[in-house]
Amino acid sequence: MSDLKIKVLFVCLGNICRSPMAEFILKNMIDKMGLSNKFIIRSAATSYEEIGNDIHYGTRAKLIEKNIPFSKREATRITTEDYKNYDFIIGMEDSNIRDIKRIVGDDVDNKISKLLDYSDNPRDIADPWYTRNFEITYNDIVEGCEGFIKYLKKTLKI
Ligand code: 4NP
C-alpha cells in the first residue's frame, strides 16, 4: 500500500538559511497540531555551494530565539527523484523556481510552488545570506507556513 503521508520539500539556493528554517518551522507547527506522523518535511538546495553543511548560524540563532526545535543536518541538492517522491516542492523566490525546473524538468505534476504564494500577499522571501536580516526571513516563513497549513486544511482536509 502506498503511504499516505504528505511529503513537503522546501527549496532555496544554499539549503542552509531559508529552506531549513522553513523545514523546522513547519515541523513545529505540524507537531503542535498533533499531525507529525502524517507528514514528511525536508529541505534541499538548488546549488552545490553548501552541500554537506549544517544550518547557517543566523538561522540557528533565530530558531533558538523563537524556541523552534531543530536537529543537526547536512545540506543536500534537489534531485529528479525528489520531484517524484514529494507532493509539494516549495521554493522561496522566483529564481529558486526557475532553478528547480532546470534540475527536475517541467512541473508536469504541478508540485512546484513558492512559499508566500500561500499567503495573502504573494512575494519572494529575500535571501538572508545577503540581507543578514533573519527576523524578516523568520516572519515571512511563518506567514507562508500558516498560509500553507490553511491551504492544506481547505484542500486536503487535514
Ligand atoms: P539560502 O542562503 O539559499 O537561504 O540557504 C544561501 C546560503 C548560501 C549561499 C547562497 C544562499 N551561497 O552561495 O553559499
Which key phrases capture this entry?
158 residues, alpha/beta, 4-stranded parallel sheet, 6 helices, 4 strands, 43% helix, 13% strand
Gist?
The protein has 6 helices and 4 strands. It is of the alpha/beta class and 158 residues long.
Folded structure, characterized:
There is one protein chain. By secondary structure, this protein is of the alpha/beta class. The protein has one domain: Rossmann fold (3-Layer(aba) Sandwich), CATH 3.40.50. The protein has helices at 18-32, 57-65, 80-85, 94-104, 128-131, 134-156, and strands at 6-12, 39-45, 88-91, 112-114. β3 (88-91), α4 and β4 form a beta-alpha-beta unit. α1 crosses α6 (134-156). The structure holds 4-nitrophenyl phosphate. 4-nitrophenyl phosphate binds at residues 12-18, 49-50, 127, 129.
The biggest sheet, with number of strands, parallel, antiparallel or mixed sense and barrel status, is: 4 strands, parallel
Shape: globular
Distance N terminus to C terminus? 20 Å
Strand content: 5-15%
Strand line-up in the sheet with most strands: 2-1-3-4
Fourth-level CATH superfamily? Response regulator
Number of structurally distinct domains? 1
Q: Count of DSSP helices?
A: 6
Poorly predicted runs:
none
Mean pLDDT: 97
- Structural class, from helix and strand content? alpha/beta
Give the proportion of residues in helices: 40-55%
Radius of gyration over all CA atoms, rounded = 14 Å
